[in-house]
Specification:
single chain; D-amino Acid Aminotransferase, Chain A, domain 1; 2 domains; 6-stranded antiparallel β-sheet; 5-stranded antiparallel β-sheet; binds thymidine-5'-phosphate; binds aspartic acid
């Protein structure tokens, strides 16, 4: 067995015999609230890998550079090796989660523009929200790279919002990570899945029934596997229809 390079909360990274390529294994493990809550979601690894692969591949066709190469097995993804920029980029279209908790905005309020936020990717510090001055002082990326990240993020949000809308799902908010490859190219990395997005079923008005993402685990709403499976099915159906829109 190859020695792992890095193990995160939801994924394990393995080296390959090509230094430019890594293998990501998606785990069924689920954590929330900075790993204070732990559990397993049966089949999550395969589902998140499948959804992420499909979305990365589709975003590439729209000119968004990603780390994705291919998916040798349902729960493993080959990716270009990147140095992850330690920033969690969150985009919000609708108020939910920590935005409501910290500002008092009511859950479900449509925001006047997509809110892009930068959080420091540091579990020990609890991933704090960064101001733009803190971001500059930390020198996690150049100001040009930050501008590029913001522009890419807004473009991805436009594409993904339209995509999920066609799946009958509202893209409430989501988190992205970016990395630099050996040629210093900025690539979209990590994953895009029900672990990293808030996805609400458009056919459901009940605030609990509509939740199709990791909030089912965070908030003990039950039927987690079913929700993840539904997202996967709708994403794959929409990808299959891509010639039609
Ligand atoms: P938040 O409302 O808890 O700040 O989350 C915003 C979005 O970011 C939501 O779609 C879930 C996602 N997210 C992650 O992917 N990883 C995290 O560690 C956190 C806190 C949020
Ligand atoms: N992934 C994060 C954690 O476990 C938080 C979350 O997604 O809510 O800590």
């Amino acid at each position: 067995m190859v020695e792992k390079l890095y193990e995160g909360k939801a994924k394990i990274l393995y080296p390959t015999n090509d230094a430019e390529i890594l293998l990501t294994y998606f785990k069924d493990d689920a954590t929330a609230f900075n790993a204070q809550k732990r559990g397993q979601i049966q089949g999550k690894g395969e589902i998140n890998c499948t959804i992420s692969a499909a979305l990365f591949e589709w975003l590439e066709t729209l000119g968004v550079p990603t780390h994705y190469i291919d998916r040798p097995t349902p729960d493993q993804m080959r990716v270009r090796a990147v140095k992850i920029i330690p920033i969690e980029v969150v985009v919000r279209n609708i108020a939910a989660g920590s935005l409501c908790k910290q500002t008092g905005l009511p859950e479900g309020k449509i925001l006047p523009f997509p809110l892009v936020e930068f959080y420091l990717k540091n579990d020990e510090l609890g991933d704090p929200l960064l101001t733009s001055d803190r971001l500059s002082i930390l020198e996690l990326a150049t100001s040009e790279q930050i501008e590029q990240i913001k522009a890419m993020t807004l473009k991805i949000n436009q594409h993904l919002s339209e995509f999920f809308d066609r799946c009958g799902i509202t893209l409430v908010d989501f988190k992205l990570e970016f990395g630099l490859d050996s040629q210093q190219r900025l690539l979209l990395a990590d994953e895009i899945s029900p672990d990293t997005c808030r996805l609400w079923d458009k056919a459901e008005s009940d605030p609990k029934a509509r939740v199709l993402d990791k909030d089912r685990f965070r908030r003990d709403l039950g039927e987690i596997e079913g929700a993840y499976q539904r997202v996967q099915q709708r994403v794959l159906e929409q990808i299959a229809r891509k010639g039609d829109w």
